[in-house]
Amino acid sequence: xxxNPFANYTLSIAAQYGETSTAIKKAQxxxxxxxxxxxxxxxxxxxxxxxxxxxxNYIA
Length: 60
Hints:
This protein has helices at residues 10-28, 39-45, 47-54. It is built from three helices and no strands. By secondary structure, it is mostly helical. The longest helix is centred in the N-terminal third of the chain and has 19 residues, at 10-28.
C-alpha cells in the first residue's frame, strides 16, 4: 500500500498557517494612541512641542 506523502505534512502546514494568519492580523492592528494626563508630560516626551518655550538649540 502506498500512503499519501502530503498527509504527513498536513498538521505542520496547518500550524504554520495558523501562526502566519495571527501574525498578519497582529501586524494590521493600529497602535494604541498615547494618552497624556498633563501638558507637562506631553512636552517632556516630544522635542518639537517642548522646544517652543525653551528654544530649538537648548542643550540640557
